[in-house]
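Subject: Sanity check before I submit

Could someone independently write out the structure tokens for this chain? I want to compare against mine line by line before I put it in a report. The sequence has 492 residues.
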Amino acid sequence: MKRAFNVCSIFLLAAVAAMLLSGCSTFISAHSQKKGMMKMYGGGYYSRAYTEAADYMKSRQDTGDELMWLMECGMITFAQERYKESLDYFNRAEAVAEDYENRATINLRGAMSEVGAAYTNQNVLPYEGDFFEKILINYYKALNYYALGEPEAAGVELRRVRYRQKNAERDFQEDVYKVTSENYSTVGSQLSGNEIMSNDRVVSDKSALAVKCNNKLGLYLNPAVSFLSAAVYLRDNNYNEALVDYRKLYFVDDGNPFFRRGLVTCAREIGSNPPEELAKEAPYDFKLAEDSVFIIFENGLAPAREERLVELILPPPVGYIGFAYPVLKFFPDKIKNVKFYGSGNLEIGDTMKFSDMEQIIANDLSNDMPIILQRALISIMVKEATSISLQIAAQQIPHVGDAARLMVFIGASIAKKAVNRADTRCWETLPQEYQCSLFKRPNDGIVKVCLIGDDGNVIDNATLNLGSRPGLKLILLKSNGFGSFNLKLFEM
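---
Independent answer below. Compare away.
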């Protein structure tokens, strides 16, 4: 019994060590840590949001939470137009993500984290970033390079995006195999895998998640990335590669007029036939590389992960038993779209949704859910077995065995309750959706930009001079959904 007690103690010490080597989200969820930052960011108070994020960033260096805070800081500094700093944050984020990707499957730190996760929760595991997040790191690096007047470097980042998209499916399957191949026996556990998967709350949450999913997006395809990539190829008169991107976009949304006309235009430029159903679709009647204005509008706030707890109190020797998992928290949006007017107040274009982060993030969490619940079952089993073993060992202490066993039982239940936390780490400063538009640059270069509310009324506007110099222009607009917007013009 003494040997069993010592073994359990070693495991507990390993769990504590892993926790110290990881981030600080084990007891306080990432979503809770970001409440102040997101309140400021959502209201457009970017300087105050950055102060909060930067303080966390400094305290999370070389921890399992570092990647998450690097992405948040990169996004906020981009919104502030501090492009060099934003690029630095995203470069560091990419380096951390690639370090996790290149590590050996088995290493001491990773092994300790796995033990710590089993004894505490999944926040002990380092946050390696979701597939769509790593793709967007390169996307925002490209935008930073455009803002800094380095289009060639931006093109390199978009080629990296294509590489990441190609490998996302394979990497996901490797993650699934890694978790499902872990050999843990659940014999004797008070909860089985079937009981977790069929729990009423779990079933309800998975059904709600499924409603938001879009299977056409798969694990890798973010239309905003492909739309920007197509613009870069069009700038270089490379209609072959632009056609590849437009085919992806058309597959996701075959009703989007910008995707339809772009596909037809590229196909005809290289002497290829467009899809039969687009035979009557008119191509653009102006030179896309010289006279076009591409619009990307970042609207609203992406869904965040918040915690769902499932808890039970069972008779001794089990006591408290429970598990936690993330669900999505969605935010309202009061902005409909953006409209553009030329001279004489003539409408020349408006934006429409073409990339829905609610769908992309729902896809990602839906794919992760089996892994999350599998790890939850492992954690329940390990904590349960350890608690019972420690109670048996305490029972053997002369004269005070019953009291010692009761104290261990109570203490173990309190500890299990304290660490029953879901992993809510994610990139929260992303937009809720991306909208796009494409129109011919007016002859005088003057464009009036109007932000349209959900009631159809103009709630903010600005006038922009695109100049008269030939070349593809990119207008990037951002609104967090509360009645104002930022506007940036990039020469591509």
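---
OP: Matches mine. For the report I'm noting this point. Residues 1-23, 183-187 have pLDDT under 50 and may be disordered.
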